[in-house]
Amino acid sequence: MAVVSARASIVAAVALAASLGAATPASADHEIVIGVQCDRSGPDATVGAPLCAGFRDYVALVNAGNGVEGHRIRAAEIDTESRVPPALAAYERLRGEAAVALALYGTQIYALAPRLAEDRIVATAAGWGPADAANGRRHPYVFSVASAASQAAAAVGFAKHRLGTLKGKKVAFVPDDSPAGREPIAVLEDLAERERFQLKTFAAPSTGATMATLAVDLARRYRADFVIAHLAGRAPSLAIQELARVGYPLDKVIFFVGGSAEADVDAAGGRAVADGYHGLEFAGVGQEFPVLRAIQAMYHAQGRQPPTRMASSVCYNRGVVMAALQVQAIGNAVAARPDGRIIGDDVKAGMEKIRGFTLGGLTPPLEITPTDHEGGGRLQVWQVKGARFVPVTDWFTAYPRVIARHVTAERGAPSR
């Protein structure tokens, strides 16, 4: 499958779905390596397993065609268990395998960001990483797609829409008690001053062990008018359970992308328990997208059933989007160097040329530039209604000027 533009990539994927049996697989004579750090066995396995399956399947779809201009893509996957030491070891191994790009998902991006710049290797870190990772001048080799700053602004914007006004309201922020969890606080404090609402942070340990006490505190003592949560692992499902148990209305709760998957709802007790809660998404939910039908067609053409991981559509679809971004950037790089002997700087330049990328509606239009490494920062709010996940907004951004101040401000300095 030749990849030279966003439109061409999705057209080729759909064409492959119709005529896969006649496709000529990419040659194995030369391969381009993407390193994929996964969590298949650690605390975030409910996210990592379907996400990495989606990444792998998209790469397989590309290779089942003509690869990228005839060059085969190899996704070299390593399970890092969402822990920094294995992530650092995996980085060295993948660098040794000449990976020109990395796919990261989780807090290990904080430890790896300096190395990426030093070694000039591109990494996507969708939904995670420093809030200023959207700033391509500050983090030239990190592409965040949905930064913490954009998620914070979107959550506040949605809360304002939901409540009508935020003036005089009480907003509870429930982050993981870690540097990653605290990342959006500066943006939220800025927005609290701007919109004149009261903000209080209720930090939750990663284990979620004190979630019952926390739910009582914010619901009955603080009496929050709205809850914004930035949690991952087991904590989102525990938060949903405990907020429901104390009678807090879940339609006044929104989670960042780390707590917005089917697995979070299922672990909380199912959609009846989680009815009403909202989640931010940077990729579409469900299986009714052309590229996903192309993947299903690929499996059927091989005499196999599509993987059950596809049912975890939130995380699976994110993996597809992350892989497609990497492949698109590689396609742009190979267009400039047809022999395929590309390096990290070529992929960086290719990523910064991505315009109007939607993957057939699976992601909002992405416009990545040398200065904007998240491609616009658009997000969408989905809600559990009855037995279904349904979208309740279009793709949107909120408070872009506030975000711009924070992603350009010096670390530790005032944002204005």
Can you summarize this structure?
The chain is of the alpha/beta class. Helices cover 41% and strands 15% of the residues.
Layout of SSEs?
Layout: H1 6-19, E1 27-38, H2 45-64, E2 71-79, H3 84-96, E3 101-103, H4 108-119, E4 122-124, E5 142-143, H5 148-163, E6 170-175, H6 179-182, H7 185-195, E7 198-201, H8 211-221, E8 226-230, H9 235-245, E9 253-255, H10 262-268, E10 278-281, H11 290-301, H12 313-336, H13 344-351, E11 380-385, E12 388-391, H14 400-408
Helix pairs in contact: 1-11, 2-11, 2-12, 5-7, 8-9, 9-10, 12-13
Please give a structural write-up:
With 416 residues, the chain is of the alpha/beta class. It folds into 2 domains: 6-146 and 285-351, Response regulator (Rossmann fold), CATH 3.40.50; 149-281 and 386-408, Response regulator (Rossmann fold, 3-Layer(aba) Sandwich). Helices cover 41% and strands 15% of the residues. The protein has helices at residues 6-19, 45-64, 84-96, 108-119, 148-163, 179-182, 185-195, 211-221, 235-245, 262-268, 290-301, 313-336, 344-351, 400-408; strands spanning 27-38, 71-79, 101-103, 122-124, 142-143, 170-175, 198-201, 226-230, 253-255, 278-281, 380-385, 388-391. The chain has a 7-stranded mixed β-sheet with strand order 7-6-8-9-10-11-12, with helices on one face. A 5-stranded parallel β-sheet has the order 2-1-3-4-5, sandwiched between helices. Strand 1, helix 2 and strand 2 (71-79) form a beta-alpha-beta unit. Helix 5 runs parallel beside helix 7 and helix 9 (235-245) crosses helix 10 (262-268). The longest helix is centred in the C-terminal third of the chain and has 24 residues, at 313-336. It is globular and about 65 Å long. 55% of the residues are buried. Mean pLDDT is 90; it is low at 1-7, 16-23 and 412-416.
